[in-house]
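Minutes, methods subgroup
Present: GH (chair), OT, SY

1. OT presented the first of two proteins processed in the latest run. Sequence and structure tokens recorded below as shown on screen.
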Amino acid sequence: MNGKQDAMRHVIHRTIPAVLIALGFCLGPGLVYKVLAAEGPDVAARNDAALDTLAPERRIAVGLERLGFCLGAAALDQKPGENALIAPLGAARVLDMIGQGSPLPVRQAIARTLGWTTFLAGSFASRVYAEKVSAQAAAQDDVSFGLATGIWHAPTHKPRLHFANAAGKDLMRQDFAAPDTVAAINAWISDRTDGQITSALADIPRDTVLLIADALAFSGAWAQPFDSQETTTAVFSDKSPMAAQVAMMHAPKLLAAHIHNDSGDLVALPLGDGTFEALLVLPGPAGLRGFAKIACHRTGGIEAPDPKADLHSVDLSMPRFKVEGSVEVDRLLHAAGLGEALDHPLFGAAMTTPPTRPGQIQQHVTLHVDEAGAKVAAATLTIGTRAAVEPVKVTLDRPFAILIRQRESGLPVLVGLINRPTPVEGTPSSGTPAK
């Protein structure tokens, strides 16, 4: 075997980047979920000139990829050596819904976090794009891709108009004190994740008045399935004292796109008719954690193999495995320097009347890879409680204007410009408490 052939032999015995596979099933070669970089902690830098040159769908995809790598890198920082499973689309869809019930400054912050030009434009384009991708998957026999959002609100908290319009048929009234509420919501999630996530919700706080859940389910068959007869037991080394024994799948002559660059070895495996793909990355000397950090700060993104120009015969070995994990998305957003929207005192305050305050954003993800293909499921939830919104203080203690008018038409009855309000009888003098 010559040097070139040897370079083509990829026995993935080191850390399979689970975060890559969870993020890396692609919506077509050259489209979304390839390995792209995320900006660093400067939120404003996410709306840079490079994004402005992209087509709308591509910009949405890159924004999600950048978000995913920021969260993934933060997760590895918090738990080195563990798996990091992130479904950025689920996190973005929950942030989108919260944004529908938030004032303009919060929407602008969410748009910056997701790499959108504006919140309304990004929200609309993202929804249309998601429907398009779902339709592409529905046209195939070997791939399925489903998205669903459920929003439950207490009878005491009426959804405000803009939020209700955005939620549409996904909006449901719910008595959160009812004993079957947790089971009902978990059943809803299980049904929409093909039974892969059955207990995302453990309990419901007593003061819950709103719950948002987003569910994602993906299943795709390899265009070139692995032969189960080639699967053997092998060692998977993750630098821990005890190397693990895994079931190692093997495809000795796999036709796949491959490149080797400063990121390491990258192999793209088509799923179905190739509309989706799994992008595998075996990191270079920096290791998985180092690769995640580099990807998080590389504005130009990681070069991925072209399905035509970089097509090779690859001797590929990779584990058969199933992993699952849960993360606090809000905590990772803060760790990645992307918590601007979450920190705003009016975050989600306009979703209902009276106001609601979203709590933690939890995400549960499962990933299953075997000889036949790959399956991904994700559930992203946030629970809203009664908001203790600080009142906006306005003190008219200097010249002011007053306009008395009919509210609907704006017909003015009086326009007043008050420089010296004359005290009326019974008004307390300065510093004297009113009786």
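2. SY then presented the second protein from the same run.
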Amino acid sequence: MTLEFTVGIKVAGARQSVTVAAEDALTAALRVKHERPAAAINYVRPSNKRGDQRHPHLSLSAAVAKS
């Protein structure tokens, strides 16, 4: 069963939050680290449907394409 996690990262001094579908928090963090090796992972939390709809985060593929 996959859940959505929000992962906070810092790349080149800029903070970003990305949403990742994964089975657990460790897997979500490792997926982000695999796609962005230079990123420092600040936090991993389950996505909050209400709050994340008001302030949407990038998906992992969109964050990689952005930089």
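Chair's summary of item 2: The longest strand covers residues 3-11.
Next meeting: continue with the remaining queue.
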